[in-house]
Write a structure and sequence with these properties.
0% of the residues lie in helices and 54% in strands. It has a five-stranded mixed sheet with strand order 2-9-8-4-6, with no helix packed on it. The chain has a five-stranded mixed sheet with strand order 11-18-17-13-15, with no helix packed on it.
C-alpha cells in the first residue's frame, strides 16, 4: 500500500520588496515588485492593487504606465512598481494594501502594511557667508539652501528684504524678491539670491533678511551687505551741438565728472550715427578719481553729399556699470 501526502505548492510568483513601509498624509510611496512565471507554459496574469477607501494604488511598468494584465513567457519575469498615495487628511495608524495576481493556473496575493505617521515639515535655511562686500553699482550672488527636515512635503515661500534706498535684493530664478518652491522630506534646494548695491548707495552696513515659510514651520537667516563706497557720475551735455558744412569736420566737448566716493573707469562709445558720418570720441576711456572731472572730445566728419538738416548722434558713456 502507498500513501500520498498532498501539500500546497508555494510558487515563487510575486515578490514585494517591502512587507511594511512608513508614510505620511500626502506621501507617494513606490515599492518594487517582481512577477515570475514558474511554469513551462505562457501565463496571462491579471494584476490588482487594493487600497483602503480614499487611497490611490496602482501597479505601473518601468515607463510609468498603469498595468492591469501582464503576459509572461515560460520561466520569465517582469519588474513592476506598486504606487501608493496616502491621501490628506489621513489619521495616524496602520493601513493595508493588497496586491493580487491571478492567471488560469496560478493565484497569489500579498499584503503591504503602511504605517501612517504624523505629517509635518521642518524648514531650515543655510547661508555660506554672513557678510558680503559691495561697492555702489556692484552686485554679489549668494546661494541660500532650503532644507526640509520634516516628514512631509511642503510648499515653501522664500522672500528677501533689504534697505530699498541702498540695496536691491532678488532671487535669480524669479527676478523678484520672493519665490515659491516645493520641497520634499530630506530634500535640500540651493537658490541664488542677488544682492545689488545701488549706484548712489551711501557707504555703510546694511542688513539683508531672508525668510522661508512652509506649511507648518518657518525659518529665517540674515547677512550683512557692507557697502564701501558709492558710484555715480555726471555727464554734461548742455552744449552738445556743432554746426558743420558738407565735407567738413568739427568737434565739441563733453564733461564727465565722478560724483561718487570711489574711482571709476569711464568708457565712451558711439551708439548710432547717420549714414556716411564719421564720429570719433577722444579719449575712449577715462580714469576718474572721486570728485575728478575730465573732458571727452566728440569729432564729427560730414560726408560731401550731406543735405541741409539736423542730424542726431547717439553717444554712450558708461562707468563701472553706471550709464
Amino acid at each position: 500500500n502507498l500513501t500520498f501526502m498532498v501539500g500546497e505548492r508555494r510558487w515563487d510568483v510575486l515578490t514585494i520588496a517591502y512587507e511594511s513601509v512608513s508614510g505620511f498624509p500626502g506621501a507617494l510611496i513606490r515599492i518594487p515588485l517582481t512577477l515570475r512565471n514558474p511554469l513551462q507554459q505562457e501565463q496571462a496574469f491579471s494584476v490588482v492593487a487594493s487600497a483602503p477607501p480614499g487611497w490611490i494604488s496602482a501597479v505601473v511598468d518601468p515607463r510609468g504606465v498603469t498595468v492591469s494584465r501582464v503576459t509572461l513567457q515560460p520561466l520569465t519575469s517582469a519588474n513592476l512598481t506598486l504606487m501608493i498615495y496616502v491621501p490628506q487628511p489621513t489619521t495616524v495608524g496602520t493601513y493595508f494594501v493588497d496586491v493580487i495576481l491571478a492567471s488560469d493556473l496560478l493565484k497569489i496575493s500579498k499584503r503591504v502594511a503602511v504605517s501612517v505617521e504624523s505629517s509635518h515639515d521642518i524648514i531650515e535655511l543655510a547661508l555660506p557667508v554672513r557678510q558680503v562686500e559691495l561697492t555702489g553699482a556692484s552686485s554679489r550672488s549668494v546661494t541660500v539652501t532650503v532644507r526640509n527636515l520634516g516628514n512631509a512635503p511642503t510648499q515653501v515661500t522664500l522672500s528677501a528684504a533689504c534697505q530699498p534706498a541702498a540695496l536691491r535684493c532678488y532671487f535669480q530664478a524669479s527676478g523678484k524678491g520672493n519665490l515659491s518652491l516645493y520641497v520634499l522630506p530630506s530634500e535640500e534646494k540651493p537658490m541664488s539670491i542677488i544682492i545689488e548695491a545701488l549706484p548712489a548707495a551711501t557707504p555703510g552696513q546694511y542688513l539683508v533678511r531672508i525668510s522661508a515659510v512652509g506649511s507648518a514651520s518657518a525659518a529665517s537667516a540674515e547677512l550683512v551687505a557692507a557697502v564701501s563706497g558709492s558710484k555715480s557720475m555726471r555727464v554734461g551735455t548742455e552744449r552738445l551741438a556743432v554746426s558743420l558744412a558738407p565735407g567738413s569736420a568739427g568737434s565739441t566737448q563733453v564733461s564727465v565728472a565722478n560724483t561718487g566716493s570711489i574711482p571709476i573707469e569711464v568708457t565712451a562709445y558711439v551708439i548710432e550715427a547717420p549714414q556716411g558720418f564719421l564720429v570719433t570720441l577722444t579719449p575712449s576711456t577715462l580714469q576718474l578719481l572721486s570728485g575728478e572731472e575730465k573732458k571727452l572730445v566728440v569729432t564729427a566728419r560730414v560726408p560731401e553729399n550731406a543735405t541741409e538738416g539736423v542730424y542726431n548722434v547717439a553717444i554712450g558713456v558708461e562707468g563701472d556699470g553706471i550709464r
